[in-house]
Amino acid sequence: MAKRVSVDRWMFTVTTILVFVGLVMIFSASAVMAKERFGSAYEFLLKQLVWAVAGLVVMIVAMKVDYKSLQHPALVFSLLGFTTLLLISVFFLDRAHGTHRWFHVGPISLQPSELAKPALILFLAWFLENKTKDMDDWRNTLIPAVVPTAAFLGLIVFQPDLGTAIACAGITACVLFIAGIRLRYFGYALALSLLPLYFLIFHVAYRKDRILAFLNPYADPKGFGFHIIQSLIAVSTGGVTGLGLMEGKQKLFYLPEPHTDFIFAVTAEELGLVGALAVIILFAIFLWRGTRAALRTQDNFGRFIAVGITSMIVLQAFINISVVLGLMPTKGIPLPFVSYGGSSLFVTLMCVGVLLNITKQAE
Fold first, then answer.
1. For 103-122, b where at least 16 C-beta lie within 10 A, e where not — what string?
2. Which end of the chain is more exposed for a tag (fewer CB within 10 A), N or C?
């Protein structure tokens, strides 16, 4: 059978639509706040637009580069080493919002943890490509496979950014599952993680408060329950068809971070159930096409990359939307393509370019 000569048009179209939706909703969610802080309602929109254009350009370039060229060990370990260096370097910089997550270069902000996700995906795909029959060999396969993940998780947790660390762990789990790891190893990993998670959550005051707010936000409606209550108000106010674009009220200094973590709440308020479901359906289509690409790819390297990138995007979308709807405790996970955040958008679009190249070569 002849190989396909064009990329997956469904995936390409869904990606560009989500980026466009993101630009529109970022402007709607941030215009008043940007005018108040910077004197221009277009501050956040223009910054995101620059990143979106750069991201789409690199996506198209990556789409045309054979993904098999990424198999070179020098590239794999250079990316791992560079990412590790960045994750360590942020601890020597001044804190921003009480965390060590960002590099600030003039007007540009870069978040190294965003690079950790594709670095892990590339390493796992390269390392596990020829080891699918040795997944029970914990000494020569499992431990070497998870060492970079464990190192990244430790560095990201201490930034602190538990949400991104959980996302990295989820991506690794998805790739390992497709590679053929036995389910009992996930049980072992969960058992080993229970004690660290207990200390990370219940011995860190703000995380403990978030858990309590998740269980009963109205116990502290003006404190730690405030975020989720305002989010639920925004979602419920939108009804079926929404209040109309730019007409939302919760973004007016009620809803925290309306242009980033809670942009889906603004979408639900202004575009209603119809708009919110449309966004969810777009991510569902992305999951479908990403899974399809993984199933049709003939080599394990491409299959593992496809699974890793698809899980990276869909898992983050699931977490973000679940937080907005009060189904999970509050975490700082952006909605891919939609939330404000230049480095996140750029890296995600670059990864989609690689995934589109895989669809181009899949039979």
1. eeeeeeebbbbbbbbbbbbb
2. N
